[in-house]
Amino acid sequence: MSTNPYPLGLRLDGRRVVVVGGGVVATRRVPALLDAGADVLLVAPELTPALRARADAGRLRWVPRRFEPDDLDGAWLVQVAIDDPVAAESVSAAAAERRIFCVRADDRTVATAWTPAVTRHGPVTVAVLGGGDPRRAMTVRDAIRDLLGARKGPLLTPAVEEGSLPNAGGRVALVGAGPGDPELITVKGRRLLTEADVVVADRLVPGLLLDELRPDVELVDASKIPYGPSRAQEEINRILVDRARSGALVVRLKGGDPYVFGRGGEELLACAAAGVPVTVVPGVTSSIAAPAAAGIPVTHRAVAHEFTVVSGHVAPDSPASLVRWEALAGLRGTLVILMGLKNLAAITATLIAHGRSPRTPAAVVQEATTGAQRVLRSTLGAVATDVLAADLRPPAVVVVGDVVHALDS
Ligand code: SAH
Q1: Which residue has the CA at smallest separation from atom 6 of ligand 1?
Q2: Is 404 left (phi over 0), alpha (psi -120 to 50) or beta?
Q3: Which of 229, 211, 227 lies closest to 219, judged by CA?
Q4: Residue among 266, 258, 246 at smallest CA distance from 202
Q5: CA 142 to centroid of ligand 1, rounded, Å
Q6: pLDDT tens string 306-344
Q7: Widest distance between CA atoms in the chain
Q8: For 1-19, what is each residue's pLDDT tens digit?
Q9: Residues with catalytic annotation?
C-alpha cells in the first residue's frame, strides 16, 4: 500500500465544499476555502463568533444542526472539523460512498485527502506535505516562505500589476511605516520594502527599517531635499514619477499613516497624473499609537465615545487656520493634537476660552514607541507651561480628555 500523496491544486470557484463542525478548526480552515471562491456549506449546531459573522454576512451557508449524509449532495470536497471520532467516521463513510474526498482534522490517517502547509506569494502558491507529519510540513513551509519573502522579481509579482503599463512595470507604493517602533510597520509594508528598488523616506520613519534594505537599493532622504517645503514636495513627486517610469518599484515610506498629515494624497495625485500606478499601504498612525504607548486609550467605555485628530501646526488665530477650535472646545470626547507643541499655549488658551475646563486631563507623548519615548501628564490649563519646563520636543502628540486617566488604578 502506498502512502505517497498525489498533489493537486483544487479550483473550487463556485463549487460546493461541505465543512462539518463550527469550532476553532473550522474557523481556521474556512477562510482559505472562501478565498478560493468555494461555495461553503457549514453544518454544525453552533458556530464560533468569527464563523457566525461570515454566515451573517452571507459569505457561506450555515445549516444549524448535526451532520446528515444528504448534506454531501452536490459537494466536491468535505472537511471534517469535529473531534468526535464516531461522528467524524460517519461523515467519512458518507463521503466515501459518494466518492467525495474527505479531509479529517481529528485523524489524518483515515482521511482521503490532506491539507498542506501553504505560503502565498503573489500568483505563486507553495503547498508542502510533510509525509504525515504536519510539523515537518510547517517547518519546510516557513523556510520556503522566508526564502521567497527575501526575493523580488516579476515571477512573484501579481499578474494584474504587470502588462501593458506605459512604464515597463514601474510603480509607486505609498507605505505607512508606523509611529517609530520598526515592528509596527504592516506585513505588506515590510514585504514591499524587501522588494523595493528605490526607497524615498521621511524624517520620521524608523531608522532600523532602512538599516534592513538591500545594499543595492537607492535610498532618497526626502528630509534632506533643499528648497522650501512646497518646492521640496514637487521635487519628491518628480523623483517618484521618474524612477517609476524607468521601471523601478518605488516605496515612498512615511511616518505613521500616509494619509494622516502625510501629504500622501498629493503624491498619489502626482503619480496618477503621470500615469504611474500607485498602491497605498496604510500605517499605524501616531495619533492613536502615541497615546496607546503612554497607556491612554483614545476611547474608553463610559468615558469617551469619540476622538478627534487635529493638526496644531497653524496657530488658532491665523487666517490660514482650517480648524474651528471653538467648536472643538465644545466637544467632550478625546482631542489628539499632532504638530502642536509650538502653538500649544495658544491652542490650550483658545480651548479654555471657549468652554473646555482647564482641569481637563492632558498628556504629551514625545517620540512614542521608540527607546526615547517621554510622557508628561498634566491638565489643559497647565500643559503648555509644563511642556516648556520639561523641555519636551517634537515629534510629540498631545492628548486632551478624561481618557488620559482611564486606565489609572
Ligand atoms: N502621518 C503621521 C503624522 C505626520 S505629522 C502619522 O500618521 O503618525 C507629524 C506629527 O506626527 C509630529 O509632529 C507628531 O505630532 C506626530 N508624531 C509622529 N510620530 C510620532 C511619535 N513617534 N511620537 C509622537 N508623535 C509623533
Answers
A1: 256
A2: alpha
A3: 211
A4: 258
A5: 35
A6: 999 999 999 999 999 999 999 999 999 999 999 999 999
A7: 85
A8: 787 899 999 999 999 999 9
A9: 202, 224
DSSP 28-54: HHHHHHHHTT-EEEEE-S---HHHHHH
Q: Residue 152: its pLDDT value, please? A: 57
- Partnered with residue 79 across adjacent β-strands are 19, 103
Query: So what's the pLDDT on residue 206?
Result: 86
Ligand 1 pocket at CB < 6 A: 179-180, 204, 254-257, 260-262, 285-287, 290, 338-339, 365-369, 394-397
Residue 409 confidence class, pLDDT cut points 50, 70, 90: confident
Closest ligand 1 atom to Cα of 339: 13
CA 185–ligand 1 middle distance (angstroms): 14
Query: Strands across the sheet with 374-379, in order?
Result: 307-311, 334-338, 396-400, 361-366, 374-379
3-state helix, strand, coil in the chain (%, to 5): 35, 20, 45
Q: Which of 125, 71, 127 is nearest to 100 (CA)?
A: 71
Strands 117-121 and 124-128: antiparallel
Which DSSP symbol is given to 116?
A: P
Mutate to test the pocket of ligand 1, among 233, 260, 286, 335 (most ligand atoms within 8 A of CB): 286
Instruction: Please classify residue 249 by burial: count the beta carbons closer than 10 Å to its beta carbon, then call 0-12 exposed, 13-18 middle and 19+ buried.
Output: buried
The model's pTM: 0.80
Q: Which runs of E-coded beta strand occur in 255-402?
A: 278-281, 307-311, 334-338, 361-366, 374-379, 396-400
| Residue (of 108, 114, 115, 111) closest to 95 by Cα position | 111
- Give, as one character, the DSSP assignment of residue 106: S
Query: What is the pLDDT confidence band of residue 374, given thresholds at 50, 70 and 90?
Result: very high
